[in-house]
Amino acid sequence: MGYERIRLDYDGKIAILKFNHPEVRNAVGAQMLTELSQAVREVRDRGAEVRCLMITGEGAGFCAGANLADADRSKQRETQGAGDGLRSGYHPLLCAMRDLEMPIVTAVNGAAAGVGMSFALMGDIVVAGESAFFLQAFARIGLIPDGGATFLLPRLIGWGRAMELSLLAERLPAAKALEWGLINRVVADEQLVDEAMGIARKLADGPRSLALIRKAYWQTWSNSYETQLDLEARLQNEAGRSVDFKEGVSAFLEKRDAQFQGR
């Protein structure tokens, strides 16, 4: 289908999703939110044809959060509570991203603010340009962090730093975000897309088990130790039945590089 507020392209086994409303630093309005949901479904429905999703922003910013000037979102706020809009719009999208059976790489250019920061942190590998920054902007307009931020932040950087970001609503530069362990890599701005695509290609060439690794790590936050051990055993059974496991063992014994098929 055609998209206006996002772009969805394919480079071999990699889906490249771009926020595409640079006039407002890719802030999310109603149309963009709908198109994001459609794009994630499209990527999911391609099955093993797509083996990695890379997300970035068009222009000078990654995503500046919700578009407060968007007319459709303003009408929704008049008829629904702010949280009800999250339930009907953002929550299904974020859960669909979590449940994708492929790794996600985010390439953060410029601002990742508000829910834009949440989208950035949905990456299994988060790469940022040197000029990028992260901002929990909600307190500036009298709201609370959303998009899963109150779940992700204390687990990624600890209680104190999560509270600092959320209560003070100050910019966190990319270099500090790396130091805190919030993101994986910082590179020169002009190298950002190449670096992210290099990682995406490596992941796209990887085995079926990468999807199972994602599943195991997402579930660990709500599981007991015993439950997680059982999950590991069940997922290992699934991985052990895969074509890629047989290829991996053969390649190891034959001292050659494995040629994984993602199944």
Structure report:
The protein has 263 residues and is α/β, with parallel strands linked by helices. The chain folds into two domains: 6-204, 2-enoyl-CoA Hydratase, Chain A, domain 1 (Alpha-Beta Complex); 209-253, no CATH class. The chain is built from eleven helices and nine strands. It has helices at residues 30-45, 71-79, 82-99, 115-121, 149-157, 159-168, 174-180, 192-204, 209-220, 225-240, 243-253; strands at 6-11, 14-19, 52-57, 104-108, 111-113, 125-129, 133-135, 172-173, 185-187. The strands form two sheets. Strands 1-2-3-4-6-9 form a six-stranded mixed sheet, with helices on both faces. It has a three-stranded mixed sheet with strand order 5-7-8.
Summarize the structure.
The chain is an alpha/beta fold and 263 residues long.
Jot down its keywords.
three-stranded mixed beta sheet, six-stranded mixed beta sheet, alpha/beta, 11 helices, 9 strands, single chain, 263 residues, 2 domains, globular, 2-enoyl-CoA Hydratase, Chain A, domain 1
